[in-house]
Amino acid sequence: MDLNNRVVIITGGKRIGRVVAQQLADRGADLVLSYRGSKSEAEATVADVQARRRQAIAVAADVSKAADCAALVAAADTAFGRVDVLVNMASVYGTKPFDELTEADFDRDLAINLKSAFLCSQSAIPVMKRTGGGRIVNFADWLARSGRPTYHGFTSYYVAKAGIIALTEALALELASHQILVNAIAPGPILAPPDMDPAEAAAVAKATPVGRWGGELEIAKAVLALIETDFITGETLRVDGGRHLA
Q1: What is the DSSP letter of 23?
Q2: Among 76, 119, 154, 159, whose CB has the most other CB atoms within 10 angstroms?
Q3: pTM of the model
């Protein structure tokens, strides 16, 4: 798919999402950015896109709710008359010991990290079909892609990201005949959390075969590759600097 004059919805468009949006705009796409509690960050990304002479809007949405997902896609369709690409980046990440994990914790992780991708896709697919096809890019995790839970305290997160891989494969099969290709990205050590101890960040880099964190641009490159392909579908691509090999 050529991105020029295409319309892309990104959920969770801050930090890494902001760089993804910038790269898409550089290739001629117009952007629709959802936000829940990060309005200022979404508006900053809108400004980035507009500075690149492309159009963008920010839409408030809790993408764990079907009505909000439908409203997000409707806003994109109203503003631009089409939806060509959906990038499901909305995610929450946190740790909690299994014996302290509550039903509410589990439901929250699955709702934001998994169900949101299903709901947004369900709303966007009819619009993509109307215009002859599209692309959906979901976000898993390198651990789930590798079948390696590895770290204690991430049960619900790991289950949700494993579900993303299954959802990606199932949707790819369902939608291939409509020329809607569905793939996922499984990030590894891309961007250290702001509150991570420098010694811990250095240890992560050392444990990664390439010897460093990847940086936001590596995710943007992967998103672009999975949008531009016309023949890859149902894949989950690890972007982890070889971490799964260590």
Answers
A1: H
A2: 76
A3: 0.97
Say if 137 falls within a structural domain: yes
* Nearest alpha carbon to residue 91 among 169, 7, 3, 190: 190
103 Cβ contact partners less than 8 Å away, ≥ 6 residues apart: none
Question: pLDDT tier at 38 (50, 70, 90 boundaries)?
Answer: confident
- Contacts of residue 49, defined as CB under 8 A and 6 or more positions apart, other chains included, come to 21, 22, 25, 30, 31, 55, 56
Domain harbouring 31, CATH code: 3.40.50.720
Amino acid 94: pLDDT = 84
Task: Evaluate whether 140 touches 185 at the Cβ level (below 8 Å).
Answer: yes
Q: Annotated catalytic residue: which of 35, 93, 151, 157?
A: 157
Q: 214 and 11 in contact (C-beta within 8 Å)? A: no
Task: Give how many domains the chain has, as a whole number.
Answer: 1
> Which pLDDT does position 101 carry in this prediction?
96
- 157 catalytic residue (yes or no): yes
Q: What is the pLDDT of residues 66-120, one digit of tens each?
A: 999 999 999 999 999 999 999 999 999 889 999 999 999 999 999 999 999 999 9
